[in-house]
């Protein structure tokens, strides 16, 4: 029997915590709650949750700083940012700091549950894939190589620090060289979403971050290229 998954809810509005907690528990998840950023960071470190729902505007420590601290410590727990603001900058900043996803208030419980499930499933799938993967770094193209055992990417023999989502996007595209995928395709294949809205912006941000890390000149990429009006592809 699968171990029950635990979601840490970091949110200072008790009515939101209560309804999210009720719906997650009804879906079979265990929940932990924190009502400020410092408490949220402490519980993320000590309780080892399977996913963190993280509000942006929190007392004591904002959600962005909580996410940044976790990623700086090498903690790759899936993080979904909750933001009450529609500002594009908030969503992009969350992704830049290493969050896996975002959802804008007010949100439907159906959408929230779908995103929690997709992110936990993706994390579990990548963890399960590690033992069966090759232990050596396989050349991909040019100076780029991927060790699918340790989930590490190298350029010219030097390791590159990627987030889990960046790694998954790179390995997906690299395993289908020269095949063009639309943003919707990538949301379904890499993000595990069977639906999309404005979230295709997430793909653009992740591609941009990935290029900044793997390309010698991100403004003139050689690995991940854009086919205008169609999508992205890995060039070999």
Series of H and E elements: EHEHEHEHEHEEEEHHHEE
The major β-sheet equals: 5 strands, parallel
- State mean pLDDT (0 to 100 scale): 81
User: How much of the polypeptide forms β-strand, as a percent range?
Assistant: 15-25%
Unreliable spans are: 128-135
Q: Helical element count? A: 8
Principal-axis shape: globular
In what order do the strands lie side by side in the largest sheet?
2-1-3-4-5
The beta-strand count equals 11
What is the end-to-end distance? 43 Å
Helix content: 40-55%
The chain-level structural class is: alpha/beta
Protein model, in words:
The chain is built from eight helices and eleven strands. Helix 4 links the parallel strand 4 and strand 5. It is globular. The model is unreliable at 128-135 (pLDDT under 50). The strands form three sheets. Strands 2-1-3-4-5 form a five-stranded parallel β-sheet, sandwiched between helices. A four-stranded antiparallel β-sheet has the order 6-7-8-9, covered by helices on one side. The protein is α/β, with parallel strands linked by helices and 236 residues long.
């Amino acid at each position: 029997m699968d171990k029950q998954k635990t979601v840490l809810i970091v949110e200072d509005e008790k009515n939101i915590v209560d309804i999210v907690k009720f719906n997650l528990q009804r879906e079979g998840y265990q929940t932990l709650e924190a009502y400020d950023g410092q408490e949220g960071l402490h519980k993320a470190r000590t309780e080892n949750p399977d996913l963190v729902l993280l509000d942006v505007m929190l007392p004591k420590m904002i959600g962005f700083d909580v996410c940044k601290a976790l990623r700086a410590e090498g903690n790759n727990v899936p993080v979904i940012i909750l933001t009450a603001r529609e500002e594009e900058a908030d969503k992009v900043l969350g992704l830049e700091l290493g969050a896996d996803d975002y959802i804008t208030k007010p949100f439907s419980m159906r959408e929230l549950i779908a995103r929690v499930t997709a992110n936990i499933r993706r994390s579990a799938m990548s963890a399960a894939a590690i033992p069966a993967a090759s232990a050596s770094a396989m050349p991909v193209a040019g100076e780029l190589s991927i060790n699918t055992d340790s989930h590490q990417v190298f350029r010219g023999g030097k390791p590159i620090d990627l987030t889990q989502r960046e790694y998954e996007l790179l390995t997906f595209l690299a395993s289908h060289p020269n095949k063009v995928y639309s943003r919707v395709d990538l949301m379904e294949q890499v993000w595990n979403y069977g639906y999309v809205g404005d979230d295709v912006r997430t793909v653009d941000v992740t591609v941009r971050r990935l290029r900044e890390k793997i390309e010698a000149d991100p403004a003139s990429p050689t690995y991940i290229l854009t086919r205008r009006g169609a999508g992205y592809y890995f060039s070999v």
